[in-house]
Write a structure and sequence with these properties.
The protein has one helix spanning 9-14; strands at residues 23-28, 31-38, 52-66, 70-76, 80-83, 88-105. The chain is mainly beta. Strands 1, 2, 3, 4, 5 and 6 form a 6-stranded antiparallel sheet that branches. Strand 3 (52-66) and strand 4 (70-76) form a beta hairpin.
Length: 126
Amino acid sequence: MNRIQPIILNDKFALIHDYWNPRIAGEVGDQYLKLAKFTGEFGWHHHKHEDELFLVVRGQMRMGLRDPDERELTVSQGEVLIVPREVEHRPAAVGDETWIVMLEPKTTLNTGTERNEYTRAELDWI
């Protein structure tokens, strides 16, 4: 049986030394709590069956959306953005680096229906 203990986000983020490579920090039912560092811009993609929750822990994230118009939102530290399934989106860091907590179904592939150099089919636990 696992011991119940707090997840110290700063300690977990200190273990991440790359970008756009989510790590699993915990699980809640059929959902994973994932952490990632962002820099630059990710590609457009969507998730056919999964909604995604993004919490900005450090920095700012810009989220491009096609829902149905193309637009961008800026999400600041301490703010949450939920992207519904099937909405095409493109996350990007504002500035040098952004830290993100994501809550999403265990089945969620980080690049959605796309496959590219950023696709991470197997995620590591931290």
